[in-house]
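Quick one, T. Sequence first:
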Amino acid sequence: MLGTGAAYLVAIGWFHKTLSTTIDQVPVTDLLLILVGLPAVAFAGGYLLAGREPATVSHQPLE
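Structure tokens:
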């Protein structure tokens, strides 16, 4: 959330000359999709692509 907020503020600062005096349309839907959807997709991808731990140790124990 902090990164998205910072990026949004930087974008406003960068394009401040082309913005109107009042910001009429804040892309709330897009921001919510980024803030909720991106972590959900990352979680699902990590869960689906994570490998399982090996059942046994693959090397000889040191004595």
